[in-house]
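Subject: mismatched residue count in predicted assembly?

I count 596 residues in my input, but I want to confirm that the predicted structure covers every chain. Input:
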Amino acid sequence: MPNFMLTVSIGTLLLPFVLGFLIFLLPRFHKLLSLAVPLATAAFALLLFTLREPFSFLLLDNFGVTLLVDQLGAFFFLTNAVVSLAVLSYVWQKNFTYFFYAMLLFVHGSVNAAFLCTDFMSLYVALEVSGIAAFLLIAYPRTDRTIWVALRYLCVSNIAMLFYLVGAVLAYKANHSFAYESLRGAPPEAVALIVMGLLVKGGVFVSGLWLPVTHSEADTPVSAMLSGIVVKAGVFPLLRCAILIDELDPIIRTFGVATALLGVSYAVFEKDSKRMLAFHTVSQLGFVMAAPAVGGFYALTHGLVKSALFLMAGSLPSRNFKELQKKSIRPSIWVALTIASLSISGAPLLAGYGAKVLTLKEVWSWQAIALNLAAVGTAISFAKFIFLPRSPEAEEHKPGIWAAVTLLLSGLVIANMVYLDAYSLDSLLKAVGTIALGWAAYWVFFRRADIKLPRLLEEFENLVGVMGLMLILIFWMALA
Amino acid sequence: MLEACVFATILFGFFGIIFKQNLLMKIVSMDVMSTGVIAYYVLIASREGLFTPITSSTPTATDTAIAYADPVPQAVILTAIVIGFSIQALMLVGTMKLSRDNPALDYRQIEKDNTP
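Triage response: the counts match. Full output below for your records.
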């Protein structure tokens, strides 16, 4: 069994890259070649769910690459597979060149690699490859704006990864190993540097404020890909480290709560639909990190719902909520938007509900208060989608989203069956209460509120400066 | 002493990224920073010795007494050098494209023009 698993894992790891390069050689078959990859990843994820115990592998000698496959990873692989499949079906009928497909495969493959490896050096390579491929995807339309946004993204993530590299070698100095375990007993500066690098890459807390502009200015399928899975490549190693090393656990949980509140407080005042979704990515990643052991299920539901929402928001006639309220939208897309919005707000019968209940069960009591507050905020901001006026004569939305959206939304309904224990009376009441409270707050105050939060922290220089501050903050947290 | 110099290089690069106004200079500063990081790996590798870690097939008594450099950090940093170089190249290409409409490459102007 271990040998079989090793072969399958390495096969899954290599397949996207091999087929990605093959696309450059056989550009004519780019669609078929790229379709094979998410299907293979999905099969691999389903195989992982059947595992009774985790397998870990050490390739080559003492200092070789280490891999670990377990159920936590299975959720992330499945997210990656479904989101990629949905994005592929979205771009299928459109005029994207083979280059775009190849880059999609590289993003997919590098994110898979980040979910599979358990040493800092392999993780570094995986994250940098995902950064480069994401850069090329964002810059794909070749306009000045997308090039600037992509440059900004690559620059921020590369600086973060340089700090991370210093942290990795400090951990190596202490324990003569690059494995995640080497963080145990490493000096606090090593912990600070590595955690800061991953927080930036994962778009968490103040250091993750590069994310709203990047995710909202990218093309629709690229936003879905970035928000659905690429940020999770930064968050997943943090979950792994938090599970492995007890001292890290409180730090990760605290950042989870902090980012959940920060993202939501920006999102409720946001007037632009794509920016609001991006701020919710910042906030939802907090829910994932708040309870590391069960973060996988939350990540899966968030990946499905957020990529569906990005695809739909991209096909609405306008991005501005004010204009959308005047224009009104088609009933068909309204139904799909409402299902997705209800899931992310945690309404019963959809996967978001089970994920929220499971997460709230695993967190500490002070975390639960803050997360409930964030859940109300989520309901408030998604009321903006649910209460949009609709009429059959409204402007036609852009075509080509239905295959992708059906796949993602049915995924939400199926994932709901995974955790049926969530359906107890008090959890149901709490979920309904949270949503009712959020909608009431929306009608009373937020519908008319016209507050523009400053974007000071989203400027490039401040993003880089904040990294320095975060380093000091995490250093003291690690020391305490 | 050497360690202090290496950290100074990293910090100079970091502050260069923050304080330089020109986009090109920001990217060059990033390269300075990554030079510092690479130098730090080399420094860590040479903690216990400077000799190339090559052993012969017939080890002699002197072999074990030689202070070898640690090969692992040097090996892994090669990957980082290559990745850093390719990122540098990509960013310079992006800057070239931007320079067609913003010949001065003033970062504030570019950011103002391109943020909604």
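Chain B has one domain: 2-51+67-114. Marking this ticket as 'not a bug'.
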